[in-house]
Design a protein that fits this description.
alpha/beta; three-stranded parallel beta sheet; 17% strand; 8 strands; single chain; globular; five-stranded parallel beta sheet
């Protein structure tokens, strides 16, 4: 229920009008460095990793920078190649996640610039990053990240739009349209929260199903991954997320009448 105001706080000072450029302070990159970026690597754990996977889509699509997303614990396992002008975006609510901090240090040793997308001010990741984009969520009380996940994605989207503006990789019309929708997000969140009663009724109908399947494609797939993770954390119900296209390549064998299925199809 704090999400609408948290979204407003995240937008404040960065995006005020669809006709004004996005502004970021203290991200540690000059305009020339943004123009010269050759690669962006997102690294994080758990929920923050899902936000990073969204970021991979956004950097490719909007800023036209080749992007990757790695689980922080796996990043060092493959000894990643760090090209000149590589940016590592490290995502963490607490700013203290041990594997993420190690990933940050490994990327810095290889010569990458690092931006921390974090919530807790003056945390370890904030101090060791070259620049910081705070998500402005306020205290995250729930163990299962809620405000932080939403605002990690929003902050990363604002970064991708900012890079697109600097690099000239998206049309002014496309950027303006996205800005208009981002400014409407707090009201959309408020509208969704008004439907809490309907959501509770839906939960009552399906709560006893032992397995759940979350399906999506493209930029919505990380949200399916996050939905499955949330159900595991909060309800102790087995849940999996799949690309809808991958269902026919094996997992469909497990589908039965008592499976709960969520299809994320934002584009219809």
């Amino acid at each position: 229920h704090e999400q609408p105001n948290a979204i407003r706080a995240c937008l404040a000072g960065r995006l005020s009008s669809p006709d004004k450029p996005i502004t970021f302070e203290n991200i540690g990159l000059t305009v020339d460095e943004i123009k010269n970026l050759k690669k962006v690597v997102f690294t994080a754990c758990g929920t923050a990793y899902h936000a990073g996977v969204v970021g991979r889509f956004l950097m490719d699509k909007l800023a036209r920078i080749p992007a990757e997303a790695d689980l922080a614990a796996e990043l060092q396992q493959r000894d990643p190649v760090v090209l000149e002008d590589t940016l590592c975006i490290v995502v963490s609510q607490s700013g203290e996640t041990a594997d993420t901090l190690e990933g940050l240090r490994a990327m810095k040793r290889k010569g990458a610039k690092v931006i921390g997308v974090i919530n807790v001010v003056d945390s370890s990741i904030a101090r060791e990053s070259d620049g910081v984009a705070y998500i402005q969520a306020g205290p995250e009380i729930g163990v299962a990240s809620t405000k932080a996940y939403t605002l990690q994605i929003l902050t990363i989207e604002l970064l991708a739009l900012y890079f697109a503006e600097v690099r000239g990789t998206a049309s002014p019309e496309e950027i303006r349209e996205i800005k208009e929708w981002l400014l409407k997000l707090p009201e959309q969140a408020e509208e969704l929260l008004k439907r809490e009663g309907d959501i509770i009724e839906l939960a009552k109908k399906h709560y006893d199903k032992p397995n759940a399947l979350y399906l999506a494609r493209g930029i919505n797939l990380p949200s399916a991954m996050e939905g499955a993770l949330k159900l595991k954390e909060i309800s102790y119900i087995h849940a999996e997320a799949y690309s809808a296209a991958e269902m026919k390549h094996g997992p469909i064998a497990l589908v039965c009448p008592d499976m709960f299925v969520v299809a994320i199809a934002c584009e219809g």
